[in-house]
Amino acid sequence: MTITLEQIRKKYPTCHYEPDPSCYKCHGSGEFITKNDGMSHACICIYIQHDYSEEIGKALGKWAGEQLKSLREESQQSDERTDESKPAE
């Protein structure tokens, strides 16, 4: 089933393009489910011209992964500092 721009705009009113049937992320549905939270999210292909959406989507995914890794490392370091400041029992 092909989803039209009018149909996808009902859920994502600021999108600019119909979903790309060849999109590696959504396969033409306009949204995808993430492994981390199991929630449905808008795909990049409904916001970016299809010629560029795959490249930009992969770059954003890489950046988001790096940010998540950095946040986890910072959180772990913060936890370690907190543990060191606790008095010994």
Structure explained in plain terms:
The structure is a single chain. This protein has 89 residues and is mainly alpha-helical. It has one domain. It has 2 helices and 2 strands; from the N terminus they run αββα. It has helices at 5-11, 50-85, and strands spanning 31-33, 40-42. Strands 1-2 form a two-stranded antiparallel sheet. β1 (31-33) and β2 form a beta hairpin. The longest helix has 36 residues, at 50-85. The radius of gyration is 19 Å and the shape is elongated. The model has no long low-confidence stretch (mean pLDDT 88).
Give the helices and strands, then pairings.
Blueprint: H1 5-11, E1 31-33, E2 40-42, H2 50-85
Antiparallel strand pairs: 1-2
Radius of gyration: 19 Å
CA-based shape: elongated
Structural class: mainly alpha
Q: Total number of β-strand segments?
A: 2
Distance between the termini: 64 Å
Largest sheet: 2 strands, antiparallel
Strand content: 5-15%
Strand order of the largest sheet: 1-2
Number of domains: 1
Helical coverage, percent range: 40-55%
Q: Give the low-confidence spans.
A: none
Mean pLDDT: 88
The count of helical stretches stands at 2
What's the helix-strand series?
Answer: HEEH
Keywords:
89 residues, 2 strands, mainly alpha, 48% helix
Compact overview of the structure:
With 89 residues, the chain is mainly α.
